[in-house]
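Quick one, C-alpha cells below. Sequence please?
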C-alpha cells in the first residue's frame, strides 16, 4: 500500500515537472526577440534601390529573393525573410544572402546596407550593380567574416576600407572589372591575416604575388586567375599546410617552377595553365596524394614526364598540353583508374606504343593531338566507350578511318585533322548521332560525300572537311532544316556553287569556302548568313566576279576576319563592319578609291589591298588606325600623290608595303613614330628625296626597300643615333644615289654580321582571336621583290636568316670599302651598274654564306682574288664589264660559273673563257660532276653545311628555294576547338 502511494506521488511530480517545462518553453517562444526595426527598415530601403531584372543574373536558377520581403502584417519580421539570417539571442541581422537575386542598380556609401553593422556574412554575387565602385562605407561592416561580391559587375579600384575588415576569412571579388593596385595585393595580404578562402580572379592586379602569402597558414583556397600577375611565383605557397585549392591560370607574364616536395601535400587542385612556369615536373609529384585535378597546360615545362605521376591514385583530371615535354608518355599513367580527363596534346613526345591508355576506361576526354603518333588510328580506343571528346589532330596517322568508331556512341567531338589519313569517310561515322564536332580537315580523304549524310547528324554544329580531296555533293533544291552550324569548313571540296543549305544557317560563326570552283557573283542571300554571329568568312581562291547587290557596309555585325583574296572581284571595295580585325582582298580587280569609311575601322590589325587596280590618294585618315594596325599592304595598285603621315606616336605598325604604285614626294618623317616597324617597302614608285637616314633610329627595322624611285644624294650618316641596329635587308637599286659607298654604315650594321642558322623562321605578323567556339591563329608573311642573278624575284616569304644588300644601278663611285667583309651574314650582295673603281677586296672571302655576288658594269681593276674560291655557297658570280685582268680563280664554285660572268673584261683569262693564261693559278680541287652542279642544299644544320663543303654544292637556298618554291602567299592558320573542360 505504501509502495503504491510513493509510486502515485512520483508520477504526479513527474507530470508537474513536464507541465512546468512546457509552460516555460511556450513562454520563451512567445518572448523570442523579433528583427530590429531599424535593421528591417534598412533592408526594405536597400531593396527599394534596385530594379528586379531576370537579365541581371546569369545563374539559370536565379530568382528575386527580396520580392517576398514585407513591411507589415504577417511575414513582416525580417528574420523570416528569405536570404536573411538573424542572431537567435539578439535578433540582429548577421547574414544576408542575395546571391543570384536578379538585382539591377548601383550601391554607394550612403546605402542603408551599411547600417547592418552586425553582419557577419554578405553575399551579393551574380547581380548587376551597373559597374559601380565597391563603396567606401563597407568599412562599417566590421564584423564581416564572409564577403562574396563575385560576378556582380563592380568596377574600379578596390577601396582600402575593405582591408579594415580584419575578421574576414572568406573573400570573393572575382569576375568583375575591378583593379587592385593602390592599395595593392601586398596590402591586402598584410591586413587580412585570417583569410582561409580568397578568390580575386579577373581582378587587374598587375604585380607579383607577394611572398608573405606563405605566412597564411590557414589559407585553404587561393584563386588568382587572369589577374595580370608578373614576376616569379613564390614556391613557399605550395607548401602551405592547409592549402587544398590553388589556381593561377592565365597569367602569362608570371614565371615559376615546381619545387621538390619532401612532405605530403594536401592539395586537391593545382592549376597553373596559361602561365610561364618552366622547368621539369619533379619526381616528387607523387607526394600530392590527394590531388584530383592537375592542369599545367600552356606553360613552358620541359623534360620527361616522371613515372611517379602514375601514383596519384585520386587524380580525375590531368592536363599537360601545350608544353615542351619530350620522350615517352610514361605507361605508369595506366594506374590512374579514376581519370576521366586526359590531355597531353601539343608536346614533343616521341609517340610510341600507348596501348596502356586502353585501360583508362573511365575517360570521357582524351586529347592526343600533335604528339608524333604514327601508323594507323590505334585500336586501344575501342575500349574507351565512355569517350565524348577525342582529338588525334596534327599527327602522322596513316591508313583509313576505321569503321569501329561507330561503337564510341557517346562521342560528341571527334577531331582527326592534319594527318595523312586516306580513303573515303566511312558511313559509320554518320551513325554517331551525338556528334556536335567533326573535324577531318587537311588529310588525303577522297570520294564523293553526299550532303544528306551530313544532315543526318542533327546535333552537329562544327564541321571541318577542308583541304582534302573530297567532292561534296549538294542539292540545290534543298530546303530542309538540317543542323545549325557554328563552324563550317568546306575549303577544297570541289564546290561549283554556293550550297543552298547555307541559306538557313543563321548561327554561323566561321564559314570557309576557299579553294573551290565557285564562279560568278556573290548572291544577295549570303548577307543573311550568321548576320549577328559570323566572325570569320573566307571565300578566297574561287572564280567570283562581284556581288549581285553590294551593300554599303557588309552586314555581319560581329565579323573579325574577312578573306576574299585571289578571285576576280570587280567594282569598289566592300566596306567591312567596325568589328573587323583582318581584311584580305588582294589579287582581285577592285577599282576606285579607298572609301572614307575605312578610317573608322578602329580595331583593324591587318589590311591587305595589294594587287588590285585601286587609285587615288591614300587617305590621310588612315593615320587614325595606327594604334591598332600592325600590317598595311597596298602593293601593286595605282595610288598616287604623296605618302600620308601614317604614323602617330604609339603606332603598332610592323610592316608597310606601298611598293609598285605611283606615289611621289618625300618619305614622311612621321615614320619615326613607328617604333616597332620591321619592314618598310616603298619600292617602284616616283618618290623624290634624299636617303632617309633618320629611319636608322627605328630599333626594330630589319627590311628597307627603296628601289626604283628618284632618290638622290650621298648616303651620309649624320650621327650615332641613326645606325639601323637590326637592318639585314636593304635595297636602294635603280635610284640616283651618288658619292662613295657608306663605310660607316657597313661598320654599324650588326644585323648583317652574324646569323643564327638554327632559327629558320619567317618574318611575319601574327594575330588571332578567340570566340567561345574556336580559336584562330593567323600568321601573315612579309614579302619583297629583289634582283637576284640578274632577274627580279619575288620572295613571298622572308626567312629570318636572310641578309642582302642591293645598291645596283646608281651612281656610286670610289673603291669598295674593306669593311664590307665584316658583314659575314650576307647572302646577296649587288653593287652592279655603278662607277666603282679600285680592286675587288680580298676580305670578301669572309662572306662565307654569300650566295650571289654581282659587281658587274663598274670600273673595277686588278685581278679577281683567288681567295674567293673559298666561298663555297656562292651560286651566282658576275664581274662582267669591268677592267679586270689576270687569271680567273679555279675550283669549287668557280668551276660552275659560265663565261657571261666575265665578259667585257679583255684582260681576264682562264676557264671558262677561251683565252688561256700563261701561268694560271689552279686550285687542287677537282671539277664537280654534272650531278653535283645545281644541287639545292639548305644550310639548316652543321651536317648540311659539311655536305655543301664536300660537294661544292651550288648553294641555291635563297635564289632557288625562295624565288620558286614559295610562290604563293598563304597566311598559315588553323582553328583549335574548345573541347569539354578546356578553357
Amino acid at each position: 500500500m505504501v509502495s503504491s502511494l510513493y509510486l502515485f506521488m512520483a508520477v504526479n511530480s513527474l507530470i508537474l515537472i513536464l507541465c512546468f517545462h512546457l509552460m516555460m518553453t511556450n513562454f520563451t517562444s512567445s518572448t523570442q526577440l523579433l528583427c530590429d526595426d531599424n535593421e528591417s527598415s534598412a533592408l526594405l530601403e536597400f531593396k527599394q534601390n534596385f530594379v528586379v531584372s531576370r537579365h541581371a543574373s546569369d545563374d539559370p536558377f536565379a530568382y528575386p529573393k527580396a520580392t517576398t520581403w514585407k513591411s507589415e502584417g504577417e511575414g513582416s519580421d525580417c528574420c523570416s525573410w528569405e536570404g536573411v539570417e538573424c542572431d537567435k539571442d539578439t535578433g540582429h541581422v548577421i547574414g544576408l544572402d542575395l546571391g543570384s537575386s536578379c538585382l539591377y542598380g548601383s550601391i554607394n556609401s550612403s546605402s542603408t546596407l551599411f547600417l547592418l553593422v552586425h553582419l557577419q556574412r554578405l553575399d551579393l554575387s551574380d547581380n548587376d550593380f551597373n559597374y559601380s565602385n565597391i563603396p567606401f562605407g563597407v568599412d562599417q561592416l566590421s564584423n564581416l567574416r564572409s564577403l562574396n561580391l563575385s560576378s556582380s559587375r563592380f568596377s574600379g579600384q578596390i577601396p582600402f576600407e575593405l582591408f579594415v575588415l580584419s575578421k574576414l576569412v572568406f573573400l570573393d571579388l572575382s569576375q568583375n572589372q575591378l583593379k587592385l593596385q593602390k592599395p595593392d595585393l601586398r596590402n591586402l595580404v598584410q591586413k587580412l591575416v585570417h583569410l582561409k578562402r580568397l578568390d580575386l580572379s579577373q581582378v587587374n592586379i598587375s604585380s607579383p604575388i607577394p611572398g608573405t602569402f606563405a605566412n597564411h597558414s590557414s589559407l585553404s583556397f587561393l584563386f588568382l586567375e587572369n589577374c595580370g600577375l608578373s614576376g616569379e611565383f613564390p614556391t613557399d605557397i605550395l607548401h602551405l599546410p592547409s592549402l587544398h585549392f590553388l589556381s593561377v591560370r592565365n597569367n602569362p607574364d608570371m614565371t615559376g617552377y615546381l619545387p621538390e616536395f619532401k612532405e605530403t601535400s594536401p592539395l586537391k587542385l593545382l592549376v597553373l595553365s596559361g602561365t610561364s612556369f618552366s622547368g621539369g615536373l619533379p619526381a616528387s609529384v607523387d607526394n600530392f596524394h590527394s590531388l584530383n585535378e592537375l592542369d599545367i597546360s600552356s606553360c613552358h615545362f620541359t623534360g620527361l614526364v616522371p613515372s611517379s605521376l602514375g601514383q596519384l591514385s585520386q587524380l580525375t583530371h590531368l592536363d599537360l598540353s601545350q608544353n615542351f615535354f619530350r620522350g615517352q608518355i610514361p605507361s605508369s599513367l595506366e594506374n590512374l583508374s579514376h581519370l576521366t580527363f586526359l590531355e597531353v596534346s601539343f608536346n614533343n613526345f616521341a609517340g610510341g606504343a600507348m596501348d596502356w591508355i586502353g585501360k583508362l576506361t573511365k575517360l570521357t576526354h582524351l586529347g592526343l593531338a600533335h604528339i608524333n603518333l604514327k601508323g594507323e588510328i590505334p585500336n586501344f580506343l575501342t575500349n574507351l566507350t565512355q569517350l565524348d571528346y577525342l582529338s588525334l589532330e596534327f599527327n602522322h596517322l596513316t591508313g583509313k578511318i576505321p569503321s569501329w568508331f561507330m561503337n564510341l556512341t557517346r562521342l560528341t567531338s571527334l577531331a582527326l585533322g592534319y594527318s595523312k589519313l586516306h580513303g573515303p569517310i566511312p558511313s559509320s561515322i554518320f551513325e554517331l548521332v551525338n556528334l556536335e564536332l567533326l573535324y577531318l580537315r587537311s588529310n588525303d580523304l577522297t570520294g564523293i560525300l553526299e550532303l544528306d549524310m551530313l544532315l543526318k547528324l542533327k546535333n552537329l554544329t562544327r564541321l571541318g572537311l577542308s583541304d582534302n580531296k573530297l567532292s561534296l555533293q549538294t542539292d540545290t533544291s534543298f530546303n530542309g532544316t538540317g543542323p545549325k552550324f557554328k563552324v563550317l569548313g568546306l575549303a577544297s571540296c570541289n564546290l561549283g556553287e554556293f550550297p543552298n543549305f547555307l541559306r538557313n544557317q543563321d548561327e554561323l560563326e566561321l564559314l570557309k569556302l576557299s579553294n573551290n570552283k565557285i564562279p560568278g557573283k556573290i548572291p544577295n542571300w549570303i548577307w543573311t548568313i550568321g548576320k549577328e554571329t559570323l566572325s570569320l568568312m573566307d571565300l578566297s581562291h574561287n572564280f567570283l566576279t562581284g556581288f549581285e547587290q553590294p551593300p554599303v557596309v557588309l552586314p555581319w555585325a560581329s565579323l573579325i576576319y574577312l578573306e576574299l583574296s585571289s578571285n576576280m572581284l570587280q567594282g569598289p571595295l566592300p566596306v567591312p563592319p567596325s568589328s573587323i580585325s583582318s581584311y584580305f582582298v588582294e589579287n582581285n580587280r577592285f577599282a576606285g578609291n579607298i572609301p572614307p569609311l575605312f578610317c573608322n575601322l578602329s580595331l583593324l590589325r591587318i589590311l591587305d589591298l595589294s594587287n588590285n587596280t585601286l587609285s587615288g590618294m591614300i587617305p590621310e585618315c588612315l593615320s587614325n588606325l595606327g594604334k591598332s594596325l600592325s600590317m598595311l599592304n597596298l602593293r601593286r595598285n595605282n595610288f598616287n600623290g604623296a605618302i600620308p603621315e601614317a604614323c602617330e606616336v604609339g603606332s603598332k605598325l610592323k610592316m608597310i608595303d606601298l611598293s609598285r604604285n605611283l606615289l611621289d614626294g618625300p618619305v614622311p618623317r612621321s615614320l619615326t613614330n613607328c617604333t616597332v616597324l620591321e619592314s618598310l617597302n616603298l619600292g617602284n614608285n616616283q618618290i623624290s628625296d634624299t636617303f632617309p637616314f633618320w629611319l636608322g633610329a627605328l630599333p626594330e627595322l630589319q627590311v628597307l626597300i627603296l628601289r626604283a624611285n628618284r632618290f638622290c644624294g650621298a648616303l651620309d650618316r649624320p650621327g650615332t643615333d641613326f645606325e639601323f641596329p637590326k637592318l639585314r635587308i636593304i635595297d636602294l637599286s635603280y635610284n640616283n644615289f651618288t658619292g662613295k659607298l657608306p663605310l660607316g654604315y657597313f661598320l654599324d650594321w650588326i644585323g648583317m654580321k652574324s646569323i643564327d642558322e638554327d632559327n629558320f623562321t619567317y618574318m611575319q605578323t601574327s594575330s588571332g582571336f578567340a570566340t567561345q567556339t574556336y580559336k584562330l591563329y593567323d600568321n601573315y608573311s612579309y614579302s619583297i621583290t629583289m634582283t637576284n642573278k640578274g632577274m627580279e624575284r619575288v620572295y613571298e616569304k622572308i626567312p629570318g636568316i636572310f641578309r642582302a644588300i642591293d645598291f645596283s644601278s646608281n651612281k656610286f663611285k670610289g673603291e669598295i670599302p674593306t669593311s664590307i667583309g665584316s658583314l659575314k651574314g650576307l647572302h646577296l650582295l649587288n653593287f652592279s651598274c655603278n662607277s666603282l673603281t679600285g680592286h675587288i677586296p680580298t676580305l670578301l672571302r669572309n662572306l662565307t654564306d654569300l650566295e650571289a655576288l654581282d659587281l658587274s658594269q663598274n670600273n673595277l681593276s686588278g685581278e679577281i682574288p683567288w681567295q674567293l674560291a673559298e666561298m663555297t655557297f656562292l651560286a651566282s658570280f658576275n664581274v662582267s664589264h669591268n677592267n679586270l685582268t689576270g687569271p680567273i680563280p679555279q675550283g669549287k664554285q668557280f668551276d660552275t660559273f659560265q663565261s657571261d660572268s666575265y665578259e667585257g673584261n679583255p684582260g681576264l683569262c682562264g676557264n671558262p673563257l677561251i683565252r688561256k693564261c700563261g701561268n694560271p693559278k689552279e686550285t687542287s680541287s677537282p671539277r664537280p660532276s654534272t650531278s653535283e652542279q645545281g644541287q639545292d642544299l639548305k644550310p639548316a644544320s652543321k651536317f648540311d653545311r659539311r655536305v655543301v663543303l664536300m660537294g661544292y654544292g651550288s648553294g641555291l637556298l635563297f635564289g632557288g628555294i625562295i624565288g620558286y618554291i614559295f610562290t604563293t602567299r598563304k597566311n598559315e592558320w588553323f582553328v583549335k576547338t574548345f573541347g569539354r573542360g578546356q578553357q
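Residues 1-32, 920-983 have pLDDT under 50 and may be disordered. Residues 449 and 568 are 28 Å apart (CA to CA).
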